[in-house]
Structures are given as C-alpha cells and as structure tokens.
C-alpha cells in the first residue's frame, strides 16, 4: 500500500512528531510506502506533493486540530485519528488498513 498522512497537534511539538514517527515506522515495518507531513511549531515539514496524493491508497490525518490544506485529499480514502492513538496504536492502524485494502481488492 501507499500511505500519506498529516500529523498535527495543538502545540505542534511532541505529539505531532511522535505520531509521524510511529506511523512511519509501523508502515515501513510492513513494507508499505509511507510519507507523513508534519504541521508543527517549525511549520510544514516533509510536505506531501500532489503526486504523493495521487499515488496514495489511503490518507491518515490526525484530528487534534484542523489540518492545513486538507482539501487536497478530496476524493481519497481518509482515516482520521487522534495523535495519541497514532502514537499508541500505529500497528493496529496498519492492520486495519491492510484489512480494508484486502476487502477492497477482493471486491
């Protein structure tokens, strides 16, 4: 699978980067392509390009605060989670998307 996502939290510091790191590690461990943009105290880092969005099977957005430019993901399968959930349950998120992807492939 090819996954893109945006991680952001109210202060734009710890949870933003911890969630991005947890998701990146979990998806890479299962040999999926993943790119997580952070919108934090340092601004936007690892920015997702239109090409990244086009290739993505799923989009993961943290929903602690509004994501800048969320409209760029229109038409994509979007999953929204709290940053704390992304940090603590990144492997479960991977499993859920693998299951969804398998269901959609078998249809």
Automatic annotation (TrEMBL):
Top-level division of the source organism's lineage: Bacteria
Residues annotated as signal peptide: none
Keyword hit for Transport: yes
Domain named PTS EIIB type-2: residues: 1-99
E.C. no: 2.7.1.202
This protein's UniProt keywords: Kinase, Phosphoprotein, Phosphotransferase system, Sugar transport, Transferase, Transport
Class in the EC hierarchy, top level: transferase
Molecular function terms, GO-annotated: transferase activity
InterPro entries per UniProt: Bacterial_PTS_Sugar_Transport (IPR050864), PTS_EIIB-like_sf (IPR036095), PTS_EIIB_2 (IPR013011), PTS_EIIB_2/3 (IPR003501), PTS_IIB_fruc (IPR003353)
Pfam families for this protein: PTS_IIB
Stored NCBIfam families: FRU
Full protein name: PTS fructose transporter subunit IIB
Organism: Sporolactobacillus shoreicorticis
Upper taxonomic lineage: Bacteria, Bacillati, Bacillota, Bacilli, Bacillales
């Amino acid at each position: 699978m090819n996954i893109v996502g945006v991680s952001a939290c109210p202060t734009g510091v710890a949870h933003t980067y911890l969630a991005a790191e947890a998701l990146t590690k979990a998806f890479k461990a299962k040999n999926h392509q993943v790119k997580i943009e952070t919108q934090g105290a340092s601004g936007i880092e690892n920015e997702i390009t239109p090409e990244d969005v086009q290739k993505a099977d799923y989009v993961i957005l943290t929903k602690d605060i509004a994501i800048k430019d969320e409209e760029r993901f229109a038409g994509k399968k979007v999953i929204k989670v709290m940053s704390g959930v992304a940090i603590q349950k990144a492997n479960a998120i991977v499993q859920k998307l693998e299951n969804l992807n398998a269901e959609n492939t078998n249809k």
